[in-house]
Amino acid sequence: MSARSCRDCLENFYEGVNFLYGRQYLRMPIATDVPLLYEAHQRIHGFPGMLGSLDCMHWEWATCPTAWKGQRHRGDHEGPTLILQAIASQDLWIWHTYYGMVGANNDIFVLQSSRLFDDVIDGVAPNTSFYTNDVECKYGYYLVNGIYLEWAMLVNTLSCPDDEKRLYYKKKQESARKDIEQTFDVLKKSWCIITQSTPSTD
User: Fold this and answer.
1) pTM above the 0.85 mark?
2) Is residue 61 within 8 Å of residue 72, measured between CB atoms?
3) Per-residue pLDDT of the chain in tens (202 residues, 90 and over written 9)
4) How far apart are CA 26 and CA 18, in angstroms?
5) How far apart are CA 38 and CA 40, in angstroms?
Protein backbone atom coordinates (compact mmCIF):
# COMPACT_ATOMS: atom_id res chain seq x y z
CA MET A 1 0.00 0.00 0.00
CA SER A 2 1.13 3.51 -0.64
CA ALA A 3 1.83 5.92 2.21
CA ARG A 4 -1.27 7.94 1.24
CA SER A 5 -3.52 4.86 1.35
CA CYS A 6 -2.11 3.86 4.74
CA ARG A 7 -2.70 7.34 6.11
CA ASP A 8 -6.29 7.42 4.78
CA CYS A 9 -6.98 3.99 6.30
CA LEU A 10 -5.64 5.13 9.65
CA GLU A 11 -7.83 8.26 9.56
CA ASN A 12 -10.87 6.12 8.76
CA PHE A 13 -9.98 3.85 11.66
CA TYR A 14 -9.78 6.84 14.05
CA GLU A 15 -13.12 8.16 12.81
CA GLY A 16 -14.67 4.74 13.36
CA VAL A 17 -13.33 4.51 16.91
CA ASN A 18 -14.64 8.00 17.66
CA PHE A 19 -18.06 7.14 16.19
CA LEU A 20 -18.37 3.90 18.17
CA TYR A 21 -16.85 4.92 21.49
CA GLY A 22 -16.61 8.71 21.59
CA ARG A 23 -19.87 9.47 23.40
CA GLN A 24 -19.15 6.92 26.11
CA TYR A 25 -15.38 7.04 26.59
CA LEU A 26 -13.83 10.08 24.89
CA ARG A 27 -15.31 12.71 27.20
CA MET A 28 -14.98 14.33 30.61
CA PRO A 29 -17.04 12.87 33.49
CA ILE A 30 -20.48 14.38 33.99
CA ALA A 31 -22.31 14.72 37.32
CA THR A 32 -23.69 11.16 37.15
CA ASP A 33 -20.25 9.68 36.46
CA VAL A 34 -18.53 11.14 39.53
CA PRO A 35 -20.34 9.01 42.17
CA LEU A 36 -19.57 5.91 40.11
CA LEU A 37 -15.87 6.83 39.97
CA TYR A 38 -15.86 7.46 43.73
CA GLU A 39 -17.57 4.16 44.48
CA ALA A 40 -15.28 2.12 42.23
CA HIS A 41 -12.06 3.68 43.51
CA GLN A 42 -13.11 3.31 47.14
CA ARG A 43 -14.20 -0.31 46.63
CA ILE A 44 -11.11 -1.34 44.64
CA HIS A 45 -8.39 0.84 46.15
CA GLY A 46 -9.81 2.14 49.43
CA PHE A 47 -9.54 5.82 48.44
CA PRO A 48 -12.75 7.84 49.00
CA GLY A 49 -13.08 10.86 46.71
CA MET A 50 -10.52 9.65 44.16
CA LEU A 51 -11.30 10.74 40.60
CA GLY A 52 -8.39 8.91 38.94
CA SER A 53 -4.63 8.73 38.54
CA LEU A 54 -2.72 11.50 36.75
CA ASP A 55 0.64 11.02 35.07
CA CYS A 56 2.72 11.85 32.02
CA MET A 57 4.35 9.57 29.48
CA HIS A 58 7.10 10.35 27.00
CA TRP A 59 6.21 9.23 23.49
CA GLU A 60 9.24 8.61 21.28
CA TRP A 61 9.34 10.60 18.05
CA ALA A 62 11.59 8.57 15.77
CA THR A 63 11.25 10.87 12.75
CA CYS A 64 11.67 14.19 14.57
CA PRO A 65 13.35 16.79 12.31
CA THR A 66 16.97 17.34 13.29
CA ALA A 67 16.45 21.06 13.97
CA TRP A 68 13.82 20.25 16.63
CA LYS A 69 15.61 17.43 18.44
CA GLY A 70 17.33 19.58 21.07
CA GLN A 71 14.19 20.92 22.70
CA ARG A 72 12.44 17.54 22.49
CA HIS A 73 15.21 15.52 24.09
CA ARG A 74 15.81 14.90 27.76
CA GLY A 75 18.76 13.09 29.27
CA ASP A 76 16.75 10.16 30.64
CA HIS A 77 15.43 9.24 27.16
CA GLU A 78 17.41 8.02 24.17
CA GLY A 79 15.89 10.35 21.61
CA PRO A 80 13.35 13.16 21.12
CA THR A 81 9.92 12.71 22.68
CA LEU A 82 6.53 14.33 22.99
CA ILE A 83 4.70 14.22 26.33
CA LEU A 84 1.23 12.77 26.88
CA GLN A 85 -0.55 13.79 30.09
CA ALA A 86 -3.53 11.61 30.94
CA ILE A 87 -5.99 10.68 33.68
CA ALA A 88 -7.37 7.17 33.76
CA SER A 89 -9.67 5.23 36.04
CA GLN A 90 -9.46 1.57 36.99
CA ASP A 91 -11.42 0.45 33.88
CA LEU A 92 -8.99 2.16 31.45
CA TRP A 93 -11.35 5.09 30.86
CA ILE A 94 -9.05 7.90 29.74
CA TRP A 95 -11.12 11.01 30.29
CA HIS A 96 -8.42 13.66 30.12
CA THR A 97 -5.47 13.95 27.76
CA TYR A 98 -3.07 16.72 26.92
CA TYR A 99 -0.57 15.84 24.23
CA GLY A 100 2.27 17.46 22.36
CA MET A 101 4.46 19.21 24.94
CA VAL A 102 8.13 18.91 24.01
CA GLY A 103 10.07 16.20 25.79
CA ALA A 104 12.50 18.53 27.54
CA ASN A 105 9.70 19.67 29.90
CA ASN A 106 8.82 18.03 33.20
CA ASP A 107 5.43 16.90 34.54
CA ILE A 108 4.90 20.08 36.57
CA PHE A 109 5.26 22.36 33.54
CA VAL A 110 2.94 20.10 31.53
CA LEU A 111 0.30 20.30 34.29
CA GLN A 112 0.55 24.09 34.46
CA SER A 113 0.15 24.32 30.66
CA SER A 114 -2.80 21.91 30.40
CA ARG A 115 -6.43 22.89 30.88
CA LEU A 116 -7.21 20.22 33.45
CA PHE A 117 -8.43 22.61 36.14
CA ASP A 118 -10.00 25.25 33.88
CA ASP A 119 -13.57 24.11 34.63
CA VAL A 120 -12.88 24.29 38.37
CA ILE A 121 -11.34 27.77 38.06
CA ASP A 122 -14.24 28.96 35.87
CA GLY A 123 -16.82 27.50 38.27
CA VAL A 124 -18.45 25.22 35.69
CA ALA A 125 -17.08 21.87 36.87
CA PRO A 126 -19.66 19.24 37.91
CA ASN A 127 -20.34 18.84 41.61
CA THR A 128 -17.66 16.48 42.90
CA SER A 129 -18.08 17.02 46.65
CA PHE A 130 -17.79 13.99 48.91
CA TYR A 131 -17.67 13.17 52.61
CA THR A 132 -14.84 11.49 54.45
CA ASN A 133 -14.64 11.18 58.24
CA ASP A 134 -17.84 13.30 58.43
CA VAL A 135 -16.08 16.19 56.67
CA GLU A 136 -17.29 17.51 53.32
CA CYS A 137 -14.61 17.98 50.70
CA LYS A 138 -15.58 20.26 47.81
CA TYR A 139 -13.59 18.52 45.08
CA GLY A 140 -12.32 15.05 44.35
CA TYR A 141 -8.63 14.44 43.89
CA TYR A 142 -6.10 12.73 41.64
CA LEU A 143 -3.31 10.43 42.74
CA VAL A 144 0.09 11.56 41.46
CA ASN A 145 3.72 10.62 41.97
CA GLY A 146 5.95 12.57 44.35
CA ILE A 147 7.19 15.35 42.04
CA TYR A 148 3.93 17.29 41.73
CA LEU A 149 3.12 20.46 43.62
CA GLU A 150 1.07 20.30 46.82
CA TRP A 151 -2.28 21.33 45.38
CA ALA A 152 -5.60 20.48 47.05
CA MET A 153 -6.71 18.23 44.18
CA LEU A 154 -3.41 16.34 43.91
CA VAL A 155 -2.43 13.62 46.39
CA ASN A 156 1.28 12.84 46.23
CA THR A 157 2.96 9.67 47.34
CA LEU A 158 5.14 9.82 50.44
CA SER A 159 8.84 9.81 49.56
CA CYS A 160 10.20 8.64 52.93
CA PRO A 161 7.51 7.08 55.15
CA ASP A 162 8.78 6.89 58.73
CA ASP A 163 6.13 4.71 60.41
CA GLU A 164 3.92 1.74 59.60
CA LYS A 165 0.83 3.83 58.88
CA ARG A 166 2.63 6.01 56.32
CA LEU A 167 4.34 2.96 54.80
CA TYR A 168 0.93 1.28 54.41
CA TYR A 169 -0.47 4.42 52.76
CA LYS A 170 2.48 4.61 50.36
CA LYS A 171 1.95 0.99 49.27
CA LYS A 172 -1.80 1.53 48.76
CA GLN A 173 -1.25 4.75 46.81
CA GLU A 174 1.37 3.19 44.54
CA SER A 175 -0.89 0.19 43.99
CA ALA A 176 -3.79 2.45 43.00
CA ARG A 177 -1.57 4.35 40.59
CA LYS A 178 -1.10 1.14 38.60
CA ASP A 179 -4.31 2.21 36.80
CA ILE A 180 -2.53 4.91 34.80
CA GLU A 181 0.57 2.76 34.27
CA GLN A 182 -1.61 -0.04 32.89
CA THR A 183 -3.36 2.46 30.62
CA PHE A 184 -0.03 3.71 29.23
CA ASP A 185 1.04 0.09 28.62
CA VAL A 186 -2.14 -0.54 26.62
CA LEU A 187 -1.55 2.62 24.57
CA LYS A 188 2.06 1.62 23.83
CA LYS A 189 1.09 -1.90 22.76
CA SER A 190 -1.75 -0.59 20.58
CA TRP A 191 0.61 1.89 18.93
CA CYS A 192 3.18 -0.86 18.28
CA ILE A 193 0.52 -2.94 16.54
CA ILE A 194 -0.54 0.01 14.38
CA THR A 195 3.00 1.07 13.44
CA GLN A 196 4.08 -2.47 12.63
CA SER A 197 1.29 -2.77 10.08
CA THR A 198 1.46 0.85 8.85
CA PRO A 199 4.61 2.47 7.39
CA SER A 200 5.59 5.75 9.03
CA THR A 201 4.56 8.86 7.12
CA ASP A 202 5.87 11.56 9.51
Assistant:
1) no
2) yes
3) 788 888 888 888 888 888 887 777 778 888 888 999 999 999 999 999 999 999 999 988 888 888 888 888 887 778 899 899 999 888 888 888 898 888 888 899 999 999 999 988 898 888 888 988 888 998 899 999 888 988 989 999 888 888 899 999 999 999 999 999 999 998 888 877 766 654 444 4
4) 8
5) 6
